[in-house]
Every structure is written in structure tokens, then in C-alpha cells.
Design goal:
The protein has helices at about 15-35, 55-65, 100-105, 125-135, and strands at about 1-10, 35-45, 45-55, 70-80, 95. The chain is of the alpha+beta class and about 140 residues long. A 5-stranded mixed β-sheet has the order 4-1-3-2-5, sandwiched between helices. A hairpin with a 2-residue loop joins β2 and β3.
């Protein structure tokens, strides 16, 4: 059974597109090898990330993330089994509201166009992403 972890954190310093790009590229390689999928949204120092995969693999990665000194205040919002992956084709999707990468998410997350749109979803992960985006997209 698939598992997922969704967490919030704050970067210790503001990261530019180049720095985030380097982090995401390394993550994509490592995640593909471990069959982990997900998405990371970065808004002016605030991060929400979704990790999906085999339970031991994502918990091991999450422990590594919690020890990473590039960010702090790592707060898990959701941990548990999921029936299907929400981001099954993404070794690690990444977006900031200012980046061209946000376009990649529009098909998956309809609230990207209008964060205040009422999205009725049984998917807890999408609901958490919407709340984060709604509260941070202008920052």
C-alpha cells in the first residue's frame, strides 16, 4: 500500500530559483531511484511538500529532511496510507507562484488559477496544498 507524508517547513534563508532548481534536480534523481513521487511548493521561504511511495522509503527520506539544516520548523500535516498516488508521474514536481513551473501544476491542482475557488475534493493532500497556496501565493 502507498503511503504519503505532507509537511510544512520554513527555509532558513530565502532561496532563489537557481538554488531551488539545484535542490529539486538532486531530489528528482534520488526520488526516482527510491520510487518516491510528490510535489514541493515554495513561497517566499515557506515550503509544503508531498512525498508518496513505499512507507519505509518515505519515512527514511522524511527523517533526512528533518535533519537538513537548510530549513526548520518541519511540521508534518499528514502521514498515512493512501489508495493511489496524487502525483504518480512526478519524481518531484516543484513550483513557486512566480515561476514558469506553476503551469505544470495547473492541470493537477485547479485552484492554482484561483486560490479562492471552492474545490470539493475527498483528497486530503490536495486540500492541504490548497490551504497552503491560498495563504502564501502572494508572498
Amino acid at each position: 500500500m502507498m503511503h504519503s507524508i505532507v509537511y510544512l517547513s520554513s527555509s532558513r534563508v530565502l532561496l532563489d530559483e537557481r538554488e531551488m532548481g539545484n535542490i529539486v534536480e538532486k531530489s528528482r534523481i534520488n526520488n526516482a531511484e527510491a520510487d518516491i513521487t510528490g510535489v514541493l511548493i515554495y513561497c517566499n521561504g515557506s515550503i509544503i511538500q508531498v512525498l508518496e511511495g513505499e512507507k519505509d522509503a518515505i519515512h527514511s527520506l522524511f527523517e533526512k529532511i528533518k535533519r537538513d539544516d537548510r530549513h526548520n520548523q518541519v511540521i508534518p500535516l499528514f502521514q498515512g496510507p493512501v489508495s493511489v498516488r496524487s502525483f504518480d508521474n512526478w519524481a518531484m514536481g516543484y513550483s513557486t507562484p512566480a515561476s514558469r513551473n506553476m503551469d505544470e501544476l495547473k492541470d493537477k491542482l485547479s485552484f492554482i488559477e484561483d486560490p479562492y475557488t471552492q474545490v470539493k475534493s475527498e483528497n486530503k493532500i490536495f486540500s492541504l496544498l490548497q490551504v497552503f497556496f491560498k495563504n502564501n501565493h502572494r508572498n
